[in-house]
Write a structure and sequence with these properties.
homotetramer, about 200 residues, mainly alpha, Arc Repressor Mutant, subunit A, Tetracycline Repressor, domain 2, 2 domains, 9 helices, about 70% helix, about 0% strand, disordered C terminus, DNA-binding
DNA sequence: AATGAATGAGTTTTCATTCAT
DNA sequence: TATGAATGAAAACTCATTCAT
């Protein structure tokens, strides 16, 4: 009997790649089945619908990513270092699995509102990290959500540029510059570097 | 019968709203026709295809927006002021026509590569502005594309937050903070403010 | 432009015939389209779904039939005559449009419970007619619903036999016998015949 | 592993319930397997196909029922009594196993033509009983098939009403009334009761 | 220019059945 | 015998586009 775990994995891999490459709508279940080397009907033994597949791919990876960011932030001290490891992790994700990044970028708008309130998201991980820094006096008091948006924007936009060839890869090469910009955008003094 | 110019306008308005709200693929020509109060076939009197409609909407507004940014930048001196007016214009667009803003954000990547080489885009407007600042010694020498990504990210991400209710509107209220963050992220000294 | 009324009629006719002949499930939208001489997609310009088509066909004809029975009953006096015209009408329907009868027979179980309470049905028409006869002392007092079931059964079962070739057609030939049986089953005296 | 006889029984029970409730077409093999608590493939260890399952269920029970009706009729004398016991048996089947009753009713027409010529059916049991009564002069000479239809209709329709809640259960309570109506519908005189 | 019914190719989804374990 | 993952043919349904009016 075929290993259902393996089949599911093949579906996920094929779907993610195709979704990233041509978008969710443009990817047919037929394409996915062909790329995964399985029958079209088999997809429906693992997922209720194409939409369910998209949602599963999104939520699993989105939440998994948030959890890793939380863990990383917890392992380090000080805004500067926290930002650095978090941003490095983000860039590594991008470099190692560009398709996953592109997929998350593509579908987040349609899927974010489905997450049940209270779920850990990368966004919350960043927000908590900034909140802590304000509390610790590392950066001036400021609008927390706005500050979160700045950091997210500074990290995500270069990756988006990289996707479309407007910035050279690997993203890891840009980590120091990105971390610096994020740090500065929050109103931190360069000196905080050495704190 | 009806003023053809007005019909076209109704199509544009309906399409833009729907595209912004639910994405291009999820919006059917039937939806557009219904929302515009016209017959489905009428769309094809004004546009060759749905894709043509998307492209027209995108290119017209994208280039127009870039031109206004260029003009604004030209009217002011110094990175700080240029950033301020450019960012204010971004935020005003968002406040005045959120559908247009979201639409441009959604489809830009799919459509950017179709633009004739050399066409002015908002990205280029920002990029030129930063290049000038580096040349003028206002900010340290740095990777131009990365810096552009920072500024774009710092501007766009708060707007995205606003769309999802994570940041209060109007966006114009956030202009000073956003401009500051953009300015700082480029490595400018706060003092440059008063320069 | 094609006449939508005519197209809808072609769909209805083709669908009814096929449904009656081979059942609803066994009839595909492709079959219907072919039989109607239209494209498969055209069905969906007239009906939301195959199920909607079935429901429309059922409810329209079922209620229409009830209305005609009501009208007929109102035009005549005395249980005997009312039964006679009502049963004759039923048999004429059967003879003139056996497909319609067979269709109603096939789908009633799945669709009866969808009718909103208070809708006129053939069943109610018969029931009212019997209730009146009891009130008028034409037949002994008895369980109204049970009596209704008797009459319905006496009328419907022969038709069902006729469908499957267990009784010769036309059904109209059996009207006197059926009416007599119905009359007698209610406990009426033969004398009532001449009342 | 499990007792094969028990497994087959579980399949039969689950299938019968589901077929009765939602029809044969609407019941999937998956549903049956779930309801029976077995694997989908197991059905095919016991039946060649879904259709084979339906046929087996139908023919076994239909013929068994006919045989019991025959036996009951043989044990009694006179139309009145024969009708009474036969109708009681009908009603008891309904009360004891409504799913089986409904199933037989639903699928009989689709399956009757498959029965070998000469097989005993409930229809024949009723028909023979009426034929005997005519021969014995208990009821007037009349169309035998039509008369059979009357009796079947008078018995079956109340049961259908009971399914839809239009008549209170148990059906056994209605046996005297139903038998009376059947008796009368055949043109028997009420006095024959006491003959 | 405008209409809107019709199209048909293409999509998602279903489900009885098979087969390796 | 039992399992249940996989199959694939066929189903219902969608939708950008066409075209007669």
């Amino acid at each position: 009997m075929a290993d259902p775990y393996e089949t599911r994995h093949k579906i996920n891999k094929a779907a993610l790649d195709l979704f990233a490459e041509q978008g969710v709508e443009a990817t047919t279940t037929k394409h996915i089945a062909q790329a995964a080397g399985i029958a079209e009907g088999t997809i429906y033994r693992h997922y209720v619908s194409k939409d369910d597949l998209v949602w599963d791919l999104f939520s699993t990876n989105y939440v998994g990513f948030a959890d890793r960011l939380d863990a990383l932030a917890a392992e380090h001290t000080g805004l500067k270092f926290k930002l650095l490891v978090v941003i490095r992790h983000f860039c590594e994700l991008f470099d190692n699995d560009p398709a996953l990044y592109r997929f998350l970028l593509l579908v987040q708008h349609r899927n974010l509102h489905r997450m049940k309130a209270g779920t850990r998201t990368p966004l919350l991980a960043i927000r908590d990290l900034i909140e802590q820094a304000i509390r610790d006096g590392e950066i001036p008091d400021q609008d927390l959500d706005l500050a979160t948006a700045f950091v997210i924007g500074i990290v995500v936009q270069p990756a988006t540029f990289a996707v479309y060839g407007r910035l050279p890869r690997p993203m890891v090469d840009h980590v120091p510059s990105i971390a610096d910009a994020a740090f500065l955008s929050l109103g931190a003094h360069a000196k905080a570097d050495h704190a």
